[in-house]
Design a protein that fits this description.
Length: 696
């Protein structure tokens, strides 16, 4: 179909709405599709209604949507990631339910099942893991390095806007049209115009292009922030381990995201302009796409896992009351993983017919990357050894990670052998492996960070009981859902199968759906924990700011922090500088003098580009060319006009800084320091007594 055949509004028509399919064929498949679309529509109406009812539009715009404060941007990233996590988890449950229906067709059509695994993978990688990682980093990194903000605050807001607008395209695809059936990797020919002329691949293309731009800008921002904005005295070898992992991830983003953007745009050229980059005719080569995608795709795994490694490093050190063991070796291991991650992408092609020599080289490279990962595991265990371990919620996530991630890592080493990989590559064994890496390795780390730094962000601790219940549900749900997939994979069950004939697979699929339901309970448990914590927040206030006996600079300031973070930029003299200062009894000094502090003003450019880019993507998906052209012009004009705004800073007077800081110091000196045995009690007001017994 050409654009001239589609009328004034491009490809939009009545048939593009899910309700049309339900009216024509009221089957279980259409009911599931319409239920999903209905949830999106009802959710939007509910949010708009609540904001209007409680008259929150003005504070939402003033305090959040136009803010360039790294802390608020980090919180918005995390909220967006949790919303997308809910959709991703529920789609996974529907897929497991389809397979648990047993041999036969189940209740979903094959095309709908293909859409589900395409959106599930795309959402969980690009719109849950990535924004969650950089939401945590946005909040924490400037505080850890003693900075007042990131290097480019307005660019930070634009990155958030582009990521959110791209994510919204996946939500729109539930309501208008259908998503791609080509998987989260979008391999041609399954996403080519000849095989799939619908709008699904176009939703994927533009969401990936726009979110990729936002993510690349974020990587540049954090690299510059850590390179240039560290507090005086914070040399690289005094950086918190988490900051090392973020700078490595930022480097990976800068080098790995462009190949993905190029591949997506070349695929768009094939579909929109009749190019032949990835076709079988006229000089095209589909393997070019696969190489470009995995040049991004395998560094992407470590882009996500490395920040989680950093989180676990902070958690293990804090909750065992010890200095992190093997700091230098952890730094070297982190950098080694970052470099080696670019050398292993061809192990995704072990089944595609390369020479034995090429397979052997990339198999060895894949095995080598396990060495620095093993170094990290041993360093973490050595950190725990003879520490005064507190089994708080972040530590429980860390311990679950240590046990489960090693299994996923070992299955990865097995898959590094080309002969074994050839047998199980297209089976559920591989699905079990990468979920075994991504759930304990990434999601558990992010949830640990959420519980660990939540008191810093909001001034009160999360409910401990519901936190522990959530850890248990995630862990049990993971084991029940994905461990059976190793077995059915070895038995030969293909991945991406919406149905199967072999009845021996069925019992394993029953166990998997039970696990998926437990994971659903874990998701709801996260929300219940938040609700209970907000309800009981007066009992868990930690205004002093150090509820965990923290070791790094973010714990040396109030909770929540002031807009400027630090009244006086700290002078760093040691690794774990705050812990060292507490040991010497000089953790809360009174400054000799205060200075005026300049901060960036709010701006609406990020929100404007979010809206305009969202409409632009929708117009391109549906071939509404006049609207796409209009949005292009408006985005360019918005940026040009924004550059003429010279009122970009405002000043907080030194007297105001002094008044607020001295009021906080007065609170510090009036509070009673709490031993770690009372960490979860109402007596914990954020002034921890240093745990000197186990400090090494």
């Amino acid at each position: 179909m050409t654009s001239t055949e589609t009328g004034f509004l491009g490809r939009l028509s009545w048939d593009a709405l899910p309700i049309a399919g339900l009216l024509q064929d009221p089957s279980a498949n259409e009911i599931v599709a319409n239920a999903a679309a209905g949830v999106v529509i009802v959710g939007v109406i509910a949010v708009v209604g609540l904001l209007s009812w409680f008259r929150l539009w003005t504070p939402l715009w003033r305090d959040w949507l136009t803010s360039v404060d790294h802390k608020k941007i980090g919180i918005m990233y995390v909220v967006f990631a949790i919303v997308m996590l809910a959709r991703g988890v529920l789609e996974g449950v529907v897929m497991r339910a389809q397979q648990a229906a047993g041999p036969g067709d189940g209740f979903l059509e094959a095309e709908h099942f293909a859409e589900l695994f395409s959106t599930h993978g795309t959402i969980m990688i690009f719109f849950v893991a990535v924004p969650f990682v950089f939401g945590i980093a946005n909040y924490v990194v400037p505080l850890m390095i003693g900075a007042r903000d990131v290097a480019f605050p307005r660019l930070n807001q634009i990155s958030l806007g582009l990521t959110v607008s791209a994510g919204m395209m996946l939500m729109v695809s539930l309501v208008v049209g259908r998503f791609s059936t080509g998987g989260w990797t979008a391999y041609p020919p399954y996403t080519g115009a000849a095989f799939n002329p619908g709008v699904g691949p176009d939703y994927w293309i533009w969401a990936i292009v726009v979110s990729g731009i936002g993510t690349t800008l974020t990587g540049i921002n954090f690299a510059v922030t850590i390179y240039k904005m560290r507090a005086p005295g914070m040399t690289f070898m005094r950086l918190p381990m988490y900051c090392w992992t973020i700078i490595c991830s930022s480097i990976l983003i800068v080098f790995a995201m462009p190949p993905l953007g190029v591949a997506a745009l070349m695929l768009a050229a094939d579909r929109y302009l009749d190019f032949h980059f990835f076709t079988n005719d006229l000089g095209g080569n589909m393997m070019n796409y696969a190489n470009l995608f995995w040049l991004f795709g395998h560094p992407e795994v470590y882009l996500l896992v490395l920040p989680a490694y950093g989180i676990y490093s902070e958690v293990f050190a804090t909750f065992s009351a010890k200095r992190l063991y093997g700091y230098n070796s952890l730094v070297i291991a982190t950098m080694s993983i970052a470099v080696l991650s670019f050398t292993v992408w061809l192990h995704h092609f072990f089944t595609m017919g390369q020479s034995a020599l090429i397979n052997a080289v990339f198999g060895i490279a894949t095995m080598l990357i396990a060495i620095p990962t093993g170094v990290k595991v041993y360093d973490w265990m050595a950190t725990l050894w003879r520490g005064r371990i507190r089994f708080s919620v972040p530590m429980l996530y860390g311990l679950a990670f240590l046990m489960l991630f090693v299994i996923g890592g070992l299955s990865g080493v097995i898959l590094a052998n080309p002969t074994i990989d050839y047998q199980v590559h297209n089976t559920l064994f591989l699905v079990a492996h990468f979920h075994n890496v991504l759930l304990p390795g990434v999601l558990f780390g992010l949830l640990a960070a959420y519980n660990y730094w939540f008191p810093k962000a909001f001034g009160f601790r999360l409910n401990e009981f519901w936190g522990r219940a959530t850890v248990a549900l995630w862990t049990i749900g993971f084991l029940l859902t994905f461990m059976p997939l190793y077995f059915v994979g070895l038995m030969g069950m293909p991945r991406r199968s919406f149905s199967y004939d072999d009845p021996s697979f069925h019992p394993f699929m029953i166990v998997a759906i039970v696990g998926a339901l437990v994971i659903t309970c874990a998701l709801f448990s996260v929300l219940i924990q938040l609700w209970v914590s907000v309800r009981d927040r007066e009992k868990t206030r930690v205004p002093v700011g150090d509820p965990w006996d923290g070791r790094t600079l973010e714990w040396s300031i109030p909770s929540p922090p002031p807009p400027y973070n630090f009244a006086i930029i700290p002078q760093v003299k040691d690794r774990d500088d705050f812990a060292a200062a507490k040991e010497r009894g000089i953790a809360y000094p009174t400054p000799d003098a205060y200075e005026d502090i300049e901060l960036p003003r709010n701006t609406g450019i990020g929100f404007i580009l979010c809206v305009f880019s969202g409409v632009w993507m929708f117009a391109l998906v549906w071939w509404i060319w006049w609207l796409a052209a209009l949005m292009t012009v408006l985005m360019i004009l918005a940026v040009i006009i924004w550059t003429f705004d010279d009122s970009t800073e405002f000043t907080i007077a030194a007297e105001e800084v002094r008044r607020d800081h001295e009021a906080w110091l007065s609170l510090v000196h009036s509070e009673k320091a709490v031993d770690r045995d009372y960490e979860t009690s109402p007596e914990n007001r954020g002034l921890a007594r240093p745990d000197l017994v186990a400090v090494t």
